[in-house]
Structures are given as C-alpha cells and as structure tokens.
Amino acid sequence: MKKIIFNRFVELTGHPVSSALLKTFTSSRLSRKLIKSFARTYRINEGEAEFPIDHYDSLQAYFTRNLKKGSRPIEMGSDTLISPVDGVVTELGEIDMNQTFKIKNHLYSIKQILGDEKRAIPYKGGFFYIFYLSPSHYHHFHYPFDGEIVSRYALGTISSPVNDLGLRLGNQPFATNYRIISELATEHGRMAIIKVGALNVNSIHILDSSTTCTKGEEFGYFSFGSTVILFLENNGSFRPTIHANTEVKMGQAVGEWK
User: Is 28 annotated as catalytic?
Assistant: First the structure.
C-alpha cells in the first residue's frame, strides 16, 4: 500500500490540478515525516546520500538528493560510453529509420521521439539505450561522453506517466511527454540524450547553459518520475558491453568504440 502511495507521489496523477497539489505537498515540510518510510519502502542506500536523512526538509528534497563525492566512480576509458543515470536498461539495440521501438507494448519511431525526420537521419544505423529510473534511484543525469552541445530543445506540451501503468494506457507517452533533447557532437559522432518528464508537471531541471560536456559531469536532475533515451550516430565501431534488463549505476561502462 505504501509503495502505491509513493508511486503516486513520484509519477503524479492523471489530472493537472491533483498533480499540482501533490507537487506542492511533497515539496513542503508537511511531507518530511514520509521520508524515512519512503527510504525503507524502496530500500534506498542512505549511506550514499550527501547528508543524513534527517537533514532533508521534504520528500521532494530527499527524492532529488545529491550523493556523496566518490559514490559513483566514472569509467574514464577514452573510448568508453558510460551510463548517464542510475537505472535499468530496459531496451537497447541498433537503429533503423523504419524501425519502431517496442517499449512496454507501445511502438515509437525515432522521428516521433526526436520531433521530425531530419533530426532522426544522423542516427540511422546507430545505437540506442532506454534507461528507466524507479523511485529508488538517484535522479540526477550526467554526460555519458565528452563533447559539445550542438542543439538543445524541448518537445511536448503534456506529460503522461512513464511507469508501467502509463506505458500501457497512455497515448504514446515517450512521443508526447514534455522532454528535453540535448544533442552532442563527439569524436565518435553525434549523440542525443532525451530526458522524459513525469505526468502533468515539467520535472526536468537543466543546471546551466554551458555547451561543454565533460564525461561524468552532472547537468541536471528530475524532480519526479523519469526515463532517459540515448541515441548514438553510427560510425561502424560501437558495441554495447551490457544486456537489456540490466541495472546500472551512473558512470558504469555500457558500451565502447573499438
């Protein structure tokens, strides 16, 4: 029962008014009493958090917590792609322009996810990853490789939940959710990092407008439920080093260019 309630806090509800109320409550000191129960329910490693659990003034503050320095070692190999987040890699594979991505029984084209066909063309024959962040995960996102931002844009005017229920019942939530796409130019080609927000509230927070991307560097966080999609341009030498349905930590190697 507690997990159901907490999932409603994280993913919000189907109505903008109730979503706004939940956002207000979870951001207030009134929600502070729920923090320890939230941590127990999701078996969160309290020792990784930047501060002791009693330091946080609201459930939202705890959900968006930073980690202690050194909690996430970065695989610094010059040809190694790292996970941008803590999460579960629900799907990965090669990209075809006519391909649809089957995500929890819904099909999505790369054109739908990126907004138009021209933006999708560079990724033909490339590779994709889909990372799902549960309520138990660290909700900050980091750069998976060195590069320069060449494009950053937002799409979507509404959000649908990115949990299992939303993916079963929502109207193609990955294509219609409010999302921010960051495209990087790297030494191995173009890379798109798509941050997908939660329901009815813009839950994606970008830290600054810098265009320089340093592998492992944080550049934003989610304040509610979230998913990250990663597209890589094809250069003929990339291979994944993990399998689908693998839980990963930010900084962990997930692929490499040979």
Answer: no
| Cα–Cα distances in angstroms (integers) from residue 108 to residues 98, 115, 162, 248, in the given order | 10, 12, 14, 24
* Residue 86 a catalytic site member: yes
Q: Which of 19, 86, 137, 140 is catalytic?
A: 86
Residue pair 152/184 in contact (Cβ under 8 Å)? The answer is no
Is 137 tagged catalytic? no
Q: Where are the domains of the chain?
A: 2-63, 80-257
pTM over 0.90: no
| The pLDDT value given to residue 104 | 44
Task: Please list the alpha-helical segments (H only) found in 102-202.
Answer: 110-114, 117-120, 164-169, 173-176
Q: What is the pLDDT of residues 133-163, one digit of tens each?
A: 988 899 999 999 999 999 999 887 655 555 5
Query: Which member of 106, 139, 142, 188 is catalytic?
Result: 142
